[in-house]
Design brief:
The complex is a heterodimer of chains A (630) and B (259).
Chain A lengths: L1 H32 L6 H18 L4 H30 L2 H23 L15 E3 L2 E3 L1 H23 L1 H11 L1 H6 L4 H23 L9 H16 L4 H21 L5 H15 L30 H21 L4 H25 L7 H18 L4 H23 L4 H21 L1 H4 L5 E2 L4 E3 L2 E3 L2 H23 L2 H11 L1 H6 L4 H27 L1 E2 L6 H14 L6 H15 L7 H15 L3 H24 L1
Antiparallel strand pairs in A: 1-2, 3-6, 4-5
Chain B lengths: L6 E10 L2 E11 L4 E5 L6 H8 L7 E6 L2 E2 L5 H7 L1 E3 L12 H7 L9 H5 L3 H20 L15 H13 L5 E5 L7 H16 L3 E5 L3 H7 L2 E6 L2 E6 L1 H6 L1 H8 L7
Parallel strand pairs in B: 3-8, 3-9, 6-7, 7-8
Antiparallel strand pairs in B: 1-2, 1-4, 4-5, 9-10
Helix pairs in contact in B: 3-6, 6-7
The chains are: A mainly alpha (630), B alpha/beta (259).
Chain lengths: 630, 259
């Protein structure tokens, strides 16, 4: 009994309260904007590391260091809000803003990596290390500080929202932004206020829990993921729900670790979430404005149409192909060629994402999970059972299809952020299974000794042979997808993306098309994952985990969504840059985040899309001039 | 009884909360006819459309489409039976060209499957070419062919409404429901629309149109159904309706009827 209580208290203090604080930040911003800010978790880490600098490095006393660290965090939040989040809200659909916040998360993590390095940090507790004994249960004194902070935050939030005029304005924005604006409320300022306030709450939360846990640059992902799960269990937008959800997920995680296995703790917590989502698709304390975000059907979707067809498109395609065929002769074998192979392999997966997100408009935060399924299935069958790689690839594809089907059926009822969340949870579930199933996957240290890809007796063991294999696969896939996307199938997907009601009125079976897009996407990711494992001869969980999913979203958006060819440039840019400029590696995380955010804000059609539009404009002008001349 | 009517609505009712939006509405649309539904704002015209296409479920009543009940069928099933509608606020698909928007209407006419399209099979390409030719012809008829490669949402409101009608026609409907197609159209565009509608009638397509433009209604329709406060106020030929006191009351006001 004592052990149970001990675990529950640890779960509450170690995880539950931070998750609750992150979830509160989510709900606050969601209430005012209708968007979840996934960068929330990074503010916790930023606050804690700033506190480390002020308290440990500069030796300031806690009562001085804490407010400074909190205010600096809020100021960073204010800057990011004013520079990125608020402008994005004005011109992007909510689902794109959600994607943009994944970029903000990566951006802050990249900045932390540069500023503080990748080592973990821990702060000294405020009142000594000795825990107090209450009825035989040990509680660290920091626990009381954490508990007190949460109470202060909740009471403060309640007072602000329920008792002040600013709170009333915030609530008005939540109910109806347009009406609030017409009533003279500065919606932009209120949005900014909620964003900075959420950053402040996150920062304070991170600061007070840092003494009982250790934090490094990428802990923001962890907080964001579990905070998101907490808020989904509680009900997005509900403050009570956020706190309860945070506690539930924190405690169940510790219970799973205590009674089953710490390796499966995350998997069990995520399983719990999926059960909750199926049982109560809107959480337990659903509140706040109900808005749909599952498709990009808002009027704000206003992007130019990118078409490179006719003779120009053909010439461009042939030139690109000729360049790709000739490249290995100009490159020294080694780093760069190897990066090109990886570019091709990742491009296959991002192509799938382009069908699912770019064409069908379905948000997916779990693309890497299908890479993991394909990669591990093929690798395990080849390594442990000596089966031919083609059989492994096929088995991976079948498994991925089954997983995609089950996930789609489970999420068919889900809407908006809950759908995005389900894909994230699925990704995290696969992550933790890859880590937890030590015997088959090799656990965190990875699976070694994977053979090269081979067909019959021919092994693709050199980078050059692999390069041409991947190139052939890519050409076939791009041609096939172009055929489908420029015909009835692609039109139906695009119709579903923007207006499901109108699509259904024309006879489009909306669930069926969503399912097919998900199926295509998972097959391509699975194939990509298998090739990835065969090429590296090694596969570890972090090569195909959730940060990889986020990275692929950045590649897609930077290259140009819905263009099929565009993502190639996004993948190439983010894969080749660190190879070409070695010193750039340290800045890669920052650059990935910054490019994703910048693309959304200033190049919504991506590099390729923008180039295509300019080319078309130039061609038109030339034609007009020629006509005028003759 | 001869051939089944295109649409037979009997005792249709739907309440939103305590408000009876539609109450005991009964009307018949003969095959091949053009029926106009008119009535003041809030009379329930669009609600009738939404009930017929099952965007909302009716509380009571029966809807027969060529003798087949539509109750409980999904919107895409209803579309596949040959009943296609447009929306009051034009719902052109953003991110698609004018031509693509028109082609999207032919969704049920695309017979090549995903794999045939992926393999660029000649049959799939031919189908695309034929549909494109048909779409171009219709776009030409409404004067939109010059904008075929522009974004559909870049068209002015009138153009978007015409595009939506073209999109619906691409589905080769047996019955076409048009929700205020002339709203937002200027005079030339209204003429284009009238021309299009007579072409539609010549093709033997049955049409129901909700419309406020009285001269358009009176010039093109065979039958007029007047809705007022969720109930049928009158129905008959355009000439009869123009004389009907209840119609004048519904439009001009109850207290001011001086005959």
């Amino acid at each position: 009994m004592n052990q149970l209580i001990q675990i529950v208290i640890n779960g509450l203090l170690q995880d539950g309260i931070v998750f609750a604080i992150v979830a509160l930040g989510f709900s606050l911003v969601f209430r005012v904007t209708g968007v979840i800010n996934l960068a929330q978790g990074a503010f916790c880490v930023l606050g804690a590391l700033l506190m480390h600098t002020f308290q440990v490095k500069l030796g300031l006393p806690i009562p001085v260091a804490l407010p400074i660290a909190a205010i600096v965090t809020a100021a960073v939040g204010l800057a990011l809000g004013a520079g990125c989040f608020v402008p994005a809200l004005g011109k992007l659909p909510n689902s794109s803003v959600l994607m943009l916040t994944t970029g903000l998360l990566t951006l802050i993590e990249g900045a932390i990596l540069i500023g503080w390095g990748s080592e973990p940090y821990q702060l000294p507790p405020y009142s000594g290390f000795a825990p107090v004994q209450i009825l035989g249960i040990r509680v660290s004194t920091q626990g009381f500080w954490i508990l007190g902070t949460v109470v202060v935050i909740i009471v403060g939030l309640w007072y602000l929202l329920a008792r002040t005029s600013v709170g009333m304005a915030l609530r008005a924005c939540a109910e109806n932004r347009l009406a609030a604006q017409l009533m003279g409320i500065d919606v932009r300022r209120m949005t900014l206020l909620s964003f900075a306030l959420a950053a402040l709450i996150g920062g304070v939360g991170g600061i007070v829990v840092a003494p009982i846990t250790s934090l490094q640059f990428d802990a923001g992902h962890f907080f964001t993921n579990f905070g998101f799960i907490a808020v989904a269990i509680g009900g997005i937008g509900s403050f009570v729900g956020s706190v309860v959800g945070g506690f539930v997920i924190g405690i169940s995680k510790q219970l799973a670790a205590g009674y089953v296995s710490s390796l499966f703790a995350n998997a069990l917590a995520l399983g719990l979430l999926l059960v909750v989502l199926i049982w109560r698709p809107h959480g337990f304390f659903a509140s706040g404005p109900a808005r749909r975000q599952d498709v990009r059907d808002e009027q704000r979707v206003y992007r130019a149409i990118v078409h490179l067809r006719g003779r120009g498109g053909l010439a461009f395609g042939l030139a690109l192909l000729a360049l790709a065929l000739a490249l290995p002769w100009f490159l020294p074998p080694g780093g760069l060629l190897s990066s090109l192979v990886i570019t091709g392999i990742l491009y296959i997966s991002v192509l799938g994402l382009d069908v699912l997100m770019g064409h069908a408009g379905q948000v997916s935060l779990g693309q890497a999970a299908f890479m993991a399924i394909g990669g591990y299935t093929a690798a395990i069958l080849a390594t442990h059972y000596g089966l031919p790689p083609l059989v492994g690839i096929a088995a991976g594809i079948v498994l991925s299809l089954i997983a995609a089907l089950v996930l789609s059926l489970v999420t068919m009822r889900l809407r908006g952020h809950y759908l995005a969340l389900a894909t994230l949870a699925f990704g995290l579930l696969v992550d933790s299974l890859a880590v937890g199933m030590m015997d088959t996957t090799g656990g965190p240290s990875g699976l070694i000794g994977i053979p090269s890809f081979s067909i019959g007796s021919f092994a693709f063991s050199t980078s050059t042979s692999m390069y041409y294999l991947v190139l052939a696969v890519v050409v076939v896939l791009v041609l096939a997808l172009m055929g489908a996307m420029n015909s009835g199938f692609g039109r139906a997907l695009k119709a579903v993306r923007t207006d499901q009601t109108a699509a259904a009125a024309l006879g489009v079976n909306v669930p069926r098309y969503k399912l097919m897009a998900a199926a295509i996407s998972s097959v391509l990711a699975s194939l990509s994952g298998s090739l990835y494992a065969f090429y590296f001869h090694f596969l570890s969980p972090e090569m195909v985990s959730t940060p990889r999913s986020f990275e692929m979203i950045a590649m897609l958006v930077v290259g140009g969504e819905g263009t099929l060819i565009g993502p190639l440039f996004g993948v190439a840019l983010l894969t080749l840059l660190p190879t070409i400029f070695q010193p750039f590696k340290e800045y890669l995380t920052l650059a990935v985040g910054a490019m994703l955010v910048a693309s959304f804000l200033w190049l919504p059609e991506g590099l390729f899309g923008t180039a295509a539009i300019w080319t078309a404009r130039l061609a038109r002008r030339l034609r007009r001039q020629r006509k005028a001349a003759s | 009884m001869t051939a089944a009517a295109a649409l037979q609505v009997t005792g249709l009712a739907r309440a939103f909360g305590g408000l009876k939006a539609i109450d005991n509405v009964t009307f018949t649309v003969p095959d091949g006819s053009l029926t106009a539904v008119i009535g003041p704002n809030g009379a329930g015209k669009t609600t009738v459309f939404n009930l017929v296409t099952n965007l909302f479920r009716p509380d009571a009543g029966e809807i027969l489409f060529y003798g087949t009940s539509l109750i409980g069928r999904s919107p895409e099933e209803i579309a596949s039976l040959g009943l296609i509608r447009t929306f009051q606020t034009a719902r052109v698909f953003p991110g698609m060209t004018v031509l693509e928007n028109a082609l999207a209407g032919a969704h049920l006419k695309v017979h090549s499957g995903l794999f045939q399209q992926m393999l660029w099979l000649p049959s799939a390409r031919r189908e695309e070419r034929l549909l494109t030719a048909e779409a171009d012809q219709l776009l030409d008829l409404v004067g939109l062919s010059g904008f075929r490669n522009a974004a559909g949402t870049d068209l002015p409101m009138g153009g978007q409404k015409l595009l939506e009608v073209v999109r619906a026609l691409m589905a080769h409907p047996r019955l076409l429901l048009l929700d205020e197609p002339a709203a937002g159209l200027n005079d030339t565009e209204t003429e284009d629309l009238a021309e299009l509608l007579s072409a539609v009638r010549a093709a033997g397509i049955t049409v129901i149109v909700v419309e406020h433009n009285m001269s358009l209604v009176m010039s093109i329709s065979d039958q007029v159904v007047v809705l007022d406060a969720g109930a049928i106020a009158a129905s008959g030929s355009p000439a009869e309706i123009q004389k009907d006191a209840r119609v004048i009351a519904a439009y001009v006001g109850h207290g001011t009827v001086a005959v």
